[in-house]
């Protein structure tokens, strides 16, 4: 795709034009063929003409094998054409549609074995080692490889589904389960999603799955081998959900289940409605990483109920969600803890801006994605720079006033897809009597590269303890027993993570000090992936060659991009191990999901 080209006026990454003809409901009927790694069946699209003169609908599609398209009512075949294929965005599927304002079209098809939304796992790649597994990841623009659709967040639809899988596998979706039909060797699972969703929120998982109940509306699902661990780790989920309702308003999705994914899942979590997918790296054994669950719960409002109209406004999904996640944190653990989380996020943002380059246009809050793969644009910037802007507004207007406004914003735009201008105009209208708004330089915040123009003053009490320990290590001359494991006794897990982030950033360390730190704190055997990740990055920075085997083991056993990509980038920068690093990637890349494999290849200069 050439630089600067937009596939359609309202979404640079989608051919579809829902402003002319919109899909309002999808009935999905698919069977999982694990032998050939394909989904086979059909979708019925209920469509409505917005422009009544329009005689065709345009859908997005990547490598789908379309077998037939017909008018569902009279069974007549409909003419269609498939356009030229672009690498990332696939092809335009253009269908001649009936003259009526509303109609239903049936598309019979099967997916490709290379469908970027689907990860087919062999039994050996699962925990149980007996049954295969399938899961999907459609955000940002991969739903089109799973079903023909208007693959843009600018439009929403309801859906129902019947998914057939071999026994004894269980099917889960981002919808409310209705029934299970026994067909002999297979079972068909029925689902319904009555709240309108965007295409990237269609989600599917099929595996040897069991559940434990957390509350009347929440269960946690996983393979049997880790269900007890998962139920313990996520037992706070009902409390998090209730707290989120205090921040955002009523929860509309009927159920809130969690599915602990296989290790190759590329994200911390994915906010699929009714069924959040979470990485197994959260299973730390001490509930210290449930902030990710708070984040995914927050998406039930910011992202799922109120949605960015395209990924150029991704900060409206993610910055808003980090803001809600930390509000939940503050209500449960106190304002100091909330602000410490914001300070830690700021460190992650600095790393991201340094990596991308302070003048990189992708560090703006509102970005131009014309001709850009949205997977390549993914970074911490929309999350943390977006959160910083909202926190700045809260401080400027006063917490009580801003929090009431925030709830009203969710209510005003629920079930809609919005852009940054919608938020700005509603904000200025809501606060039109407040002179404080004149201090906001909107263009500076929204359209300027690099770090946020203003960093709010945060409570530093938790941070100060981290800095104090850091300073002791920096000033240590290497002799004497100045440090003990008990140094960390008063630290929360988040402070240990932040301490290591500061060590990684510091230029006042040597390899001998890093080895001494391992002797005292034994980070190598820590079970918390956030701690291990920062520790291993530090080891790579100081070229501790004996740790290389541990680094490879870590990146080969998780597909979470937050960990894998920075470590691969660090290893690539270490010239002596670059060849070994590329060899390790080539040997293990097929265990990764497409999005992780695709982006790491770019990090290792194996593709443009």
What is the radius of gyration computed over CA atoms, rounded to a whole number of angstroms?
A: 24 Å
Q: Count the strands?
A: 21
Chain-averaged pLDDT: 96
The biggest sheet amounts to: 7 strands, mixed
Outline the structure in words:
There is one protein chain. The protein has helices spanning 227-233, 237-248, 291-298, 315-333, 335-356, 374-377, 381-397, 399-413, 420-430, 442-447, 461-475, 493-505, 511-521, 529-541, 548-557, 561-573, 578-588, 594-603, and strands spanning 21-33, 38-49, 56-61, 65-71, 80-82, 91-96, 102-110, 118-121, 133-136, 157-166, 170-173, 176-182, 186-197, 204-207, 210-215, 218-222, 257-260, 269-270, 275-278, 306-308, 416-418. It has 608 residues and is an alpha+beta fold. The strands form 5 sheets. Strands 4-7-2-1-10-13-12 form a 7-stranded mixed beta sheet, with no helix packed on it. A 5-stranded mixed beta sheet has the order 15-16-17-19-18, with helices on one face. Strands 8-9-14-11 form a 4-stranded antiparallel beta sheet, with no helix packed on it. The longest helix is centred in the middle third of the chain and has 22 residues, at 335-356. The mean pLDDT is 96.
């Amino acid at each position: 795709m050439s630089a600067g080209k937009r596939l359609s006026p309202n979404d640079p990454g989608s051919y579809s034009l829902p402003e002319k003809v919109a899909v309002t409901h999808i009935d999905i009927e698919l069977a999982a063929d694990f032998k050939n790694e394909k989904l086979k069946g059909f979708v019925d699209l209920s469509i409505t003409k917005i422009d009544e003169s329009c005689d065709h609908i345009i859908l997005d599609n990547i490598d789908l094998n379309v077998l037939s398209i017909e008018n569902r009512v009279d069974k007549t075949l409909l003419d269609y054409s498939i356009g030229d294929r672009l690498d990332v965005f696939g092809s335009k599927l253009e269908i001649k549609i009936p003259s009526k304002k509303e109609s239903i079209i049936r598309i019979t098809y099967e997916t490709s074995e290379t469908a970027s939304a689907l990860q087919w796992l062999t039994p050996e790649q699962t925990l149980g080692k007996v049954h295969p597994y399938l899961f999907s990841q459609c955000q940002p623009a991969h739903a089109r490889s799973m079903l023909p659709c208007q693959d843009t967040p600018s439009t929403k639809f309801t859906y129902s589904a019947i998914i057939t899988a071999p026994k004894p596998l269980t099917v889960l979706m981002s919808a409310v389960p209705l029934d299970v039909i026994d067909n002999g060797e297979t079972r068909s699972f029925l689902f319904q999603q009555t709240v309108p969703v965007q295409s990237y929120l269609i989600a599917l998982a099929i595996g040897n799955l069991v559940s434990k109940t957390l509350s009347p509306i929440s269960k946690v699902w996983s393979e049997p081998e880790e269900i007890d661990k998962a139920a313990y780790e996520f037992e706070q989920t009902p409390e998090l959900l209730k707290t989120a309702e205090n921040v955002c308003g009523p929860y509309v999705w009927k159920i809130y289940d969690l599915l602990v994914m296989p290790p190759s899942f590329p994200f911390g979590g994915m906010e699929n409605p009714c069924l959040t997918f979470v990485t197994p790296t959260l299973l730390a054994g001490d509930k210290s990483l449930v902030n990710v669950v708070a984040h995914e719960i927050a998406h039930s409002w910011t992202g799922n109920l109120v949605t960015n109209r395209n990924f150029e406004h991704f900060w409206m999904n993610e910055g808003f969600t980090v803001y809600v996640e930390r509000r939940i944190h503050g209500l449960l653990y106190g304002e100091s803890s909330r602000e410490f989380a914001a300070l830690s996020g700021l460190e992650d943002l600095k790393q991201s801006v340094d990596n991308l380059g302070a003048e990189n246009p992708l560090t703006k809050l509102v970005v131009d994605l014309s001709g850009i793969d949205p997977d390549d644009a993914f970074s911490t910037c929309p999350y943390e720079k977006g959160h910083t802007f909202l926190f700045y507004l809260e401080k400027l207007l006063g917490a009580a006033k801003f929090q009431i406004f925030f709830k009203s914003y969710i209510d005003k735009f629920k079930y809609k897809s919005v852009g940054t201008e919608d938020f700005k105009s509603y904000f200025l209208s809501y606060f039109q009597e407040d002179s404080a708004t004149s201090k906001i330089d909107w263009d500076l915040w929204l359209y300027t590269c690099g770090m946020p123009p203003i960093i709010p003053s945060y409570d530093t009490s938790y941070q100060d303890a981290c800095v104090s320990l850091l300073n002791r290590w920096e000033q240590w001359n290497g002799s004497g027993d100045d440090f003990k494991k008990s140094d960390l006794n008063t630290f929360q897990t988040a402070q240990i993570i932040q301490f290591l982030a500061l060590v990684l950033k510091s230029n006042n360390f040597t390899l001998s000090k890093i080895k001494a730190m391992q002797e005292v704190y034994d980070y190598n055997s820590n079970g918390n992936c956030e701690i291990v990740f920062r520790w291993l990055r530090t080891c790579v920075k100081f070229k501790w060659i004996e740790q290389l085997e541990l680094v490879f083991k870590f990146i080969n056993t998780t597909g979470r991009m937050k960990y894998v990509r920075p470590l691969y980038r660090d290893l690539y920068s270490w010239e002596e191990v670059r060849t070994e690093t590329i060899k390790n990637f080539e040997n293990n890349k097929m265990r990764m999901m497409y999005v992780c494999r695709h982006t790491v290849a770019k990090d290792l200069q194996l593709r443009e």
